[in-house]
Design a protein that fits this description.
Blueprint (H helix, E strand, L loop, with lengths): L2 H15 L7 E6 L5 E9 L3 H4 L1 E6 L2 E6 L14 E6 L2 E5 L3 H10 L4 H5 L14 E7 L6 E9 L7 E6 L8 E6 L16 E4 L4 H11 L5 E10 L6 E6 L3
Length: 243
């Protein structure tokens, strides 16, 4: 096992398997075969309102929907499009900024400029970070971008905007952000560089591995999108708490 693969395995154990609440998370990387890219996205929840959700895929798009519409208390931060596509562009995020980014890219704008119009979520006292990812396959080399919009430590009314542009991950590995470091009150926002996480096996195996790693009491839904390197159509695999 290479040093980076070992690091990814350790991060998977400490930040997911042994962590009751990393919150929402996203991973962008290469399938182990090297034949496709993968985007992983999951949601977790502690309150009944947060847990009352499922993932629904319609073609290449992924969105959240209520499991029981009659029990929804506040849909504003829990119902949104999580994965959207444009030709050669694949957006994933933990909120309605997915649409903000996709619309900006469609009109010739940039990932960073789109997110400059948004703030961290307004759910005091947690001020949940907005995490977003972009896979750009339009050029000769794939481009990956990750962003976190996080409440400023000195004044949570302000938003810190941090963008990462890592090189393309090697096969079997991905770069990841989560909303939180772990459980707490208030919840501690994610800190540091993106995590290296493993993407061993095919998309189905990755979906099972990540779903099994998330805390059973807090996990809500997980999706894996497979994007062939030969420009074939993407596919989405879903795991829902409420089957």
């Amino acid at each position: 096992m290479t040093g980076l693969a070992a690091q990814a395995k350790a991060s998977f154990a400490s930040h997911l398997t042994e962590n009751p609440y990393p919150g929402r998370g996203l991973v962008i990387g290469h399938e182990a075969s090297g034949e496709a890219w993968l985007q992983v996205y999951w949601i977790m929840g502690r309150s009944p309102n947060s847990q009352n959700r499922i993932f629904v895929a319609e073609g290449p798009e992924l969105r959240t929907e209520p499991h029981d519409a009659s029990a929804v208390e506040d849909p504003s931060l829990i119902i949104y499009e999580a994965m959207l596509e444009l030709p050669g562009l694949y957006v994933v995020s933990n909120g309605d900024q997915t649409r903000t980014v996709a619309d900006a890219l469609a009109s010739g704008g940039s990932f960073e400029a789109a997110l400059a119009t948004r703030e961290r979520e307004p759910d005091a006292p947690n001020f949940t970070p907005r995490i977003s990812g972009l896979l750009d396959l339009r050029g000769a080399e794939a481009g990956v971008a990750l962003s976190i919009l996080r409440a400023n430590d000195a004044d949570p009314a302000l938003t810190d905007r941090i963008t990462f542009r890592p090189a393309s991950p090697p096969p079997g590995l991905g770069v990841a952000l989560t909303t939180y470091q772990g459980d707490g009150s208030p919840l501690p926002s994610f800190r540091g560089d993106p995590l290296w996480l493993p993407l061993d096996g095919d998309a189905e195996a990755v979906a099972d591995r990540y779903w099994d790693a998330l805390d059973r009491g807090n996990r809500v839904a997980l999706a894996v999108k497979r994007i062939p390197t030969d420009a074939g159509a993407s596919q989405i695999w879903i795991r829902n708490r409420h089957a």
